[in-house]
Amino acid sequence: MNRLNGKTAVITGGATGIGLAAAKRFIEEGAFVFIYGRRQETLDTAVADLGPNARGLKGSVSDLADLDRLYTAVKAERGTLDIVFANAGVGSQLVLGKITGEHIDETFDTNVKGTIFTVQQALPLMGQGGSIILTGSSAGTTGAPGMTAYSASKAAVRNLARTWAEDLKGTGIRVNVLSPGATATELAKDALGEEGQKVFASMTPLQRMADPAEIGVVAAFLASSDSSFMTASEVAVDGGLAQL
Ligand SMILES: NC(=O)c1ccc[n+]([C@@H]2O[C@H](COP(=O)([O-])OP(=O)(O)OC[C@H]3O[C@@H](n4cnc5c(N)ncnc54)[C@H](OP(=O)(O)O)[C@@H]3O)[C@@H](O)[C@H]2O)c1
């Protein structure tokens, strides 16, 4: 399929997990992709894997000067931008009673503030036909032990698409949320541990975790004109976890 032929995409958190799987899929479908994250070595490994239609840019989504550098590089090499996959996120568990200010700040600085500025700084490069995809989570809908900050941050992300569909009226730019369930990535391993991953897999109607590629393929659909009449939507790719 060449649904993304000639398109330029930015994927935050694109060097690992869901972001890397989406980057592979976008490139397979014809896109040129900038991946963004804080670890240079991880970016270098991913770019070597992705090939000549990928660039790696180091920075944090919670740092506006870093984001400026990202979009300056996109403008210099590509001129305009078609797709933003605001996917970078962090998640760790702390039960009510143990929550700290640092835990809230880290989670919201990345998942909420980071998502907002990833998109806001991209807008001057985007226009008609643009697609913004935000990574939500089944945790934004369901309750789970110790997930106060993470779940609240992802519920906020879900609302960003609703609000921005209003703010973007008349621009031709669409914005949707892609909400994975339990997916086999570094984040899931760190946040849930081996035992927690088994629990989430068993709670999922499809009885397993997702492979990141199963999320990346839906990101490509939302990036492409195949989803041309979709905006403000949340697309659950969660094996049914949050749907019963
Ligand atoms: N895995 C799951 O079960 C699951 C379920 C639902 C939703 N999600 C969401 O899916 C998204 C991707 O996560 P993943 O599961 O693929 O895990 P992952 O492999 O750990 O990916 C997270 C990515 O975000 C990047 N990142 C984190 N903080 C950043 C920052 N401040 N600035 C720039 N990049 C940052 C990380 O790179 P650096 O550390 O190098 O910066 C990493 O590449 C997240 O939003 C997560 O909440 C995951």
**Name of the CATH architecture:** 3-Layer(aba) Sandwich
SS-derived structural category: alpha/beta
Hetero groups in this structure are:
NADP nicotinamide-adenine-dinucleotide phosphate
Helical stretch tally: 7
**What is the fold named in CATH at topology level?**
Rossmann fold
- What is the CATH domain class? Alpha Beta
What kind of assembly state do the chains in view correspond to?
single chain
* Intertermini distance: 33 Å
Q: Residue share in helices?
A: 40-55%
* Strand coverage percent: 5-15%
Shape: globular
The low-confidence parts are none
Using DSSP, what is the number of strands? 7
**Major sheet strand order:** 3-2-1-4-5-6-7
Instruction: Give the name of the CATH superfamily.
Output: NAD(P)-binding Rossmann-like Domain
Q: Could you give a short account of the major beta sheet?
A: 7 strands, parallel
Task: Kindly give the count of domains.
Answer: 1
How are helices and strands ordered from N to C?
EHEHEHEHEHEHHE
Q: Return the average pLDDT rounded to an integer.
A: 98
Q: Using only CA atoms, what is the Rg?
A: 17 Å
Domain Ketoreductase: 7-185
Family: Belongs to the short-chain dehydrogenases/reductases (SDR) family.
Protein name: NAD(P)-dependent dehydrogenase (Short-subunit alcohol dehydrogenase family)
GO molecular function: oxidoreductase activity, acting on NAD(P)H, oxygen as acceptor
SSE order and pairing:
Layout: E1 8-12, H1 17-28, E2 32-37, H2 40-50, E3 54-58, H3 64-78, E4 83-86, H4 101-122, E5 131-135, H5 148-167, E6 174-180, H6 186-203, H7 212-223, E7 234-237
Parallel strand pairs: 1-2, 1-4, 2-3, 4-5, 5-6, 6-7
Helix pairs in contact: 1-7, 3-4, 4-5
NADP nicotinamide-adenine-dinucleotide phosphate binds next to α1, β2, α4 and α6.
